[in-house]
Each structure stands twice: as C-alpha cells, then as structure tokens.
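Field reference: sequence -> structure
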Amino acid sequence: MKQGKISEAVIRRLPRYYRHLITLNEQGVERISSGELANIMNLNASQIRQDFNNFDSFGQQGYGYQVKNLIKELGKILALNKTYKMIIIGAGNIGRALTFYDGFRNSGFEVCALFDNDPSLVGCMYRDVPVYHVDLLEEYIAKNNITIGIYAAHSSFAQDLSEKMIKAGVKAIWNFAPVDINSSVPVENVHLVDSLYVLSYKLNNQSGA
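Structure field:
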C-alpha cells in the first residue's frame, strides 16, 4: 500500500467514505463507481480517485470499486481492525451520552471508565461503566493500558488533566472542552458550538452557503 504524506483534508474525508460505504453495503450494493459515490457524497469524482490513489487505486477503470473490499481497505487505513480502550474525564451530560453510544463498541472503541470529582457521581455506574474519582485517573490509565483519553469536563482543567493522561500513558486525546489542548500526542478538538456558528452563518448567508 503506497502512503506518503497525507493531507489533513484527505484524512478527514476518509471516515465519510467509510460511513457511506457501510450504508451502501447494508443496502446490498456490491460495486460503485467514483462518479456514483461522488453524487451520493456531493463530491467530485476526480477528488475521490485522487484521495484513494494516496493509498492504492482500489478499483479498475470502467469497473469501479467493490464496496466490501473498499470498506476493508479503508478500515485498515483508519486502523479500525484494532480495539481501543478509552476513558472519559467528566461524568456530566456529554460524558454520560458518550458512554451510552453504541457506535463506539461496534467500531472497536471501548469506554472503560469515567472520572469526576463530584461526590454524587463517583461510585455510580452508567451502563456497565463505573465512575471513579479523578484522583485515580493516572493509576487507572497505567494499569489498564488505556489508549484514548476523552475530555468532557470543565475547560479550566483541560490542559492540566490532559497532560496527566499523557504522562500516564494515553496516546491520543478527544477533547470536548471549548478550548484547544496543546499536546505531544494527537488531539482532536471537538468544539460543538463552532458547528452552530457555522450553521448560523449559513442560515443568514444562504445564497453563498
């Protein structure tokens, strides 16, 4: 599989390809062309071919792509053939919602524990996931081979607790606090309100949306 320096834009399109192909497979579609996939995803066919050519061709001209094979190859590229253990800092609304989301387990992402400093939450179980005091965070990460740390607590502590997670062994951080975390490991900052700002702009500038 050829793979050099991949742009951020291409990386961010890969999950979209994967998600749409899963749906197509569930609908019984066995083969699809770049043009057909482009129409479904509102993209350009040449863009799709260029994206896939960063890794391999995956298809044949005039033949298209075998959907199941493309799902398999994209799964390898996204490293979805592994299991990732995760913890969540923050047992509030966002943390609990993430705990109950079935899509994680179905994709190999396992939420093992939540952490909080609220006495009314510590000791609770959400689904089958326990809530521990945040003071036990580093010890738990080190003992349980946690790969991904999810931050869903107050923004004031985001940087400090992220550094503690990294020191304890976390290899990546998914951040839901409305601040950008500086880190030596990969961080995905998910600022929910930013999406609403974009939506607000589009609502009020629909001619240019």
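Note: The chain has nine helices and ten strands.
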